[in-house]
Design brief:
- Catalyzes the transfer of a formyl group from 10-formyltetrahydrofolate to 5-phospho-ribosyl-glycinamide (GAR), producing 5-phospho-ribosyl-N-formylglycinamide (FGAR) and tetrahydrofolate.
- The longest helix has 24 residues, at 156-179.
- The chain has a 7-stranded mixed beta sheet with strand order 3-2-1-4-5-6-7, sandwiched between helices.
- The protein has 210 residues and is of the alpha/beta class.
- It has 2 domains: 1-94, Rossmann fold; 100-210, Rossmann fold, CATH 3.40.50.170.
- It has 7 helices and 9 strands; from the N terminus they run βαβαβαβαβαββαββα.
- Bound molecules: glycinamide ribonucleotide.
- Residues 7, 9-13, 36, 80-81, 101-103, 114, 138, 167 line the site of glycinamide ribonucleotide (GAR).
Length: 210
């Protein structure tokens, strides 16, 4: 599978994917000058930058995005800090082949600054979600979730560090599972696994008790 990683921030999840040898054929950033671009360059991966300024209309942006993905013959997409909302046309073109990582236990705390939202709310548990992308924002069938405990006295910075550590462990594992067809999105919109639940559980073993 030829993966595109869609980014817009520091690129720590992109680095995690590249470090695990995910075949990333393209990085698309919606912002110029971000850390993720430097990481792509460090690993010799081509980068395309599509900004809101160039394409203020969502549909124009996405049309250009789809053309770019086609030009690089992309099969699957991993969103990692890409903060633009994809249109139905793009989701339909790649349905079941687009995943997103989000730093909370969705459906709690979607949107921006999810770690801080959860922290300020005072939750005792939060975590990380990887899901197939649909037309909504941080919605779509959930593939994997890993909880992270928020002990009394934990600082926001400590929680951010713990969440990012889980993200960097989990995302490459989910990509590997998709590559090996262990998991897929069925026609009826549900998630199907072809490995037994115990194996799925041990597959992300060690991440449960962070
Ligand atoms: C990650 O924490 C990711 O979960 C989050 O953006 C960060 C990107 O960091 N995504 C969202 O909040 C999506 N709604 P990175 O650039 O270091 O990978």
């Amino acid at each position: 599978m030829r993966w595109a990683v869609l980014v817009g921030g520091t690129g720590s999840n992109l680095r995690a994917l590249l470090s695990e040898d995910v075949p990333v054929a393209l990085v698309v950033s919606h912002r110029s000058g971000v850390g993720a671009i430097a990481i792509a360059e460090e690993f010799g991966v081509p980068v395309e930058v599509l900004t809101k300024r160039e394409y203020p209309d969502r549909h124009d942006f996405d049309r250009e995005l789809r053309q770019t993905l086609n030009r690089y013959d992309i099969d699957a997409i991993a969103m990692a800090g890409f903060l633009r909302w994809l249109t139905k046309e793009t989701v339909d073109a790649f349905r079941g082949r687009i995943i997103n990582i989000h730093p909370s236990l969705l459906p709690a705390f979607p949107g921006l600054h999810a770690i801080e939202q959860a922290y300020r709310y005072g939750v005792r548990w939060t975590g990380v979600t990887v899901h197939f992308v649909d037309e909504g924002q941080d919605t779509g069938p959930i593939i994997a979730q890993v909880p992270v405990r928020v002990d009394p006295g934990t600082s926001l910075g400590e929680l951010e560090t713990a969440i990012h550590k889980v993200e960097h462990d989990l995302y490459p594992k989910v990509v590997a599972a998709l590559e090996q067809h262990w998991v897929w999105l069925a026609e009826d919109g549900t998630i199907k696994w072809q490995v037994p639940p115990e194996e799925v559980r041990s597959w992300i073993d060690g991440l449960y008790l962070v």
